[in-house]
Amino acid sequence: METFSFAFSVTGPIFLTLIIGYWLAKIGLLRRAFVDDSSRLVFLITLPILLFINIFTAEAELRRELPLLAAGLIGTLVTIPLAWLAARPLTRGDRSAFIQGAFRGNLGIIGLAWAANAYGNSGLAQAALLMAVVTIVYNLAAVILFSVYSQDIKFSWRKLARDIAQNPLIIAIVLALICKQLALALPQILLQTGEYLASITLPVALLCIGASLDFSLLRRSSLAALGAVGFKLVLVPAVMLTAGWLFQLPAQSMGVLLLLACTPSATVSFIMARAMGGNSQLAANVVALSTLLSIITASLGLALLEVFFQ
């Protein structure tokens, strides 16, 4: 019973914050302009600061996390072609939405929040490093999907490299690793200011995600949406945990790997599906349904992991 209490203490507050954001939007206290501006503030400023501070001040070193990063990389590289195969029976317009929703998780907000709740700053630092590696793979996969399914929009490898190099989250992680490697001593006033800004990141971001959800879409969920959600919340964590087991990761690293694998489908999958001329309604259904069900799968997975790794 204690293991389930621990698991729910990790995922429950995040889910409730999303629901509060959804409710505040419904009653008009969170308006679209505020959500848009806050989302940009989080992505461009406060989330990069959060990642920098936690990696820079973490006791763990990059080389000690290489097995975790390798497990996450291999697991992601396995799940993407599996998602493509699973989408083959669908019509062409549904495939891109299914694939994006099936493998691409909301690592930057929900994944980091879960890791922080479960393991504190050390877990948050591990999750940030893993997120950086997996995000690069996500972008590579997105380019391939664009080239296969989009007839109007073409992306080049040069543009991909530029987008990755300009991504503020990846820049923050790389700078933190460089500063940490050089053993730089940043002024305390800068670190404390950074902590102030970082502290607003996850609550504001979760409220914004909640405000953007449309659970009315669940009434129109199809078998394809259910299949994508099942793939994302069950198969992806199973593949990731298998990779972690092969690398003999310790308990906390396995927990971080599981929590990031169990994240609901990222809202960007809806944007990508629409840009590729795919079924954006299906993509929206996958995002909403996986957000609702991820609380169950992540809690059960974390509880079982606690049992087997005690």
UniProtKB/TrEMBL annotation:
Localisation per UniProt entry: Cell membrane
- Single GO cellular component term: plasma membrane
Keywords on record: Cell membrane, Membrane, Transmembrane, Transmembrane helix, Transport
InterPro entries assigned = Mem_transp_PIN-like, Na+/solute_symporter_sf
Q: Where are the membrane-spanning stretches?
A: 6-29, 41-60, 66-85, 128-149, 169-190, 196-216, 223-247, 253-273, 285-309
What's its membrane topology?
Multi-pass membrane protein
Query: According to the lineage, what is the superkingdom?
Result: Bacteria
Q: Main site of residence?
A: membrane
Q: Name one GO biological process term.
A: transmembrane transport
Similarity comment: family membership: Belongs to the auxin efflux carrier (TC 2.A.69) family.
- What protein does this entry describe? Transporter
* UniProt source species: Microbulbifer thermotolerans
